[in-house]
Amino acid sequence: MRWIFVLMFGGLGVMLVYVGVTQYFSQKRIAANARPIQVEIIRSDVTRSESKDRDRSLTRSTSTISWSPNVRFRYVVNGTTYESDMLRPNIIGTSYASQAEAAAVIAPYLVGAKVLAYVDDRHPDKAFLILEEGAGPVVFMLVGPLALTAAYLAFRFLP
Q1: What tens digit of pLDDT does each residue of 137-153 get?
Q2: What are the residue ranges of helices labelled H in 33-121?
Q3: The CATH number of the domain where 68 resides is what?
Q4: Are residues 76 and 152 located together in one domain of the fold?
Q5: Membrane-spanning residues where (predicted)?
Q6: Coil, strand or helix: which one is 69?
């Protein structure tokens, strides 16, 4: 039993740290080399996600609901047409506790609108709409060591 916890939390911790670090430096590089371009919004909506109720009690529910902003846009770089769904210069998405919060993020991006976006010519398939670095990579880098600590504690104290 101990080894299952060690492998599970250790693997999760390593993966979170790896993704966090690579995305942190990737978003810095892409944002630093980004130039503005005009794009056309082809999708703009909010998706609802509900976690499963793990409590078998009929009197309460432990499920949670989160809302994710979704936007997709089309653009041309050096004669080639691309599509992207990146809000910020990293692949880690953000979800919100309310539909209104998620909708506020994509309010400027109505379907059919032509808006300003950013692209690094070395990575033309990774255009993004908001020129700010997301907090996702830092969160991953902070949560990863917590999972590694849980793996160590499981190794040390579980029979």
Answers
A1: 778 888 888 888 877 77
A2: 99-106
A3: 2.40.50
A4: no
A5: 6-25, 138-158
A6: strand
